[in-house]
User: Which sequence fits this backbone?
């Protein structure tokens, strides 16, 4: 699996079925990745919403017209012998596409929906890190803290929920000491449907909520501060990974672990929270 499009997300519009503000618009050619490999979508706005062409992996094409719901495109297609709703949400580097079939009575079969990732023409996806692991498929499936930190940025939001709930309990207070990482995890959780249990843990004492986080992250993209924000996340993440690796007995040098211990001590006395990180980039 190459679910790396999520690592490039600035704003996602699919949050528990409701649209949120987008930092990009649908327009141009999009090519499927992962389960959508071989498919493509050509879409452009018009006075009534959007118009486009959907190409399946066999090369069959189907023209469609789509209504505009904020920045989301919603249209009806025939796919695999079924009538489906295509809901396409823009990302700065591509799009997330929901395919939801109708039953014989014209009702959406939500439990049969599929989420597919598409990347905009011309975008190159990064290589996965050496210690990357696939996202857990079920909530609470056990995942090592180091594996989570190495991988969560590349997981779809649902995978982050599953992984966060599967972390060793002693790891949760550690990540709270590194508020940029805590905020980054919260952001991913806020993008997932049915994340209440994970959010109840992650939001505790952080002074933020999902609507505020989503709008603030969108603001960092609009004001050009997103790169700085992600740089801070990366610094915190690498420090936290070393703390975890030393605590879990990975093969590290004494100097590395001494430095990690000192940084952990500094983090432990800091009063900074996810809210403080957000405020720095507005």
Assistant:
């Amino acid at each position: 699996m190459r679910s790396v499009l999520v690592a490039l997300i600035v704003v996602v519009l699919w949050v528990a079925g409701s649209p949120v503000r987008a930092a990009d618009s649908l327009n141009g050619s999009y090519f499927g990745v992962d389960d959508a490999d071989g498919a493509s979508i050509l879409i452009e706005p018009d006075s009534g919403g959007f118009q486009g062409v959907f190409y399946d992996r066999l090369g069959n094409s189907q023209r469609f017209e789509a209504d505009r719901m904020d920045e989301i495109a919603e249209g009806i297609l025939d796919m695999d012998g079924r009538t489906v709703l295509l809901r396409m949400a823009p990302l700065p580097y591509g799009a997330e596409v929901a395919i939801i079939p109708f039953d014989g009575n014209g009702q959406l079969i939500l439990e049969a929906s599929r989420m597919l990732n598409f990347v905009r023409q011309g975008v190159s996806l990064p290589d996965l890190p050496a210690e990357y692991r696939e996202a857990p498929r079920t909530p609470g499936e056990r995942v090592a803290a180091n594996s989570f930190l190495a991988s969560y940025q590349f997981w779809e939001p649902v995978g982050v929920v599953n992984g966060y709930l599967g972390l060793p309990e002693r790891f949760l207070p550690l990540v709270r000491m590194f508020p940029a990482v805590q905020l980054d995890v919260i952001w991913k959780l806020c993008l997932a449907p049915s994340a209440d249990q994970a959010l109840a843990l992650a939001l505790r004492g952080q002074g933020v909520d999902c609507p505020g986080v989503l709008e603030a992250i969108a603001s960092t993209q609009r004001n050009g501060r997103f790169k700085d924000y992600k740089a801070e996340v990366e610094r915190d993440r690498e420090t936290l990974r070393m703390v975890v690796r030393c605590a879990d007995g990975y093969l590290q040098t004494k100097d590395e672990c001494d430095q990690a211990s000192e940084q952990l001590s500094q983090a432990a006395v800091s009063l900074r929270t996810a809210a403080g990180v957000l405020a720095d980039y507005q």
Q: What stands out?
A: Residues 1-23 have pLDDT under 50 and may be disordered. Residues 145-280 form one domain.
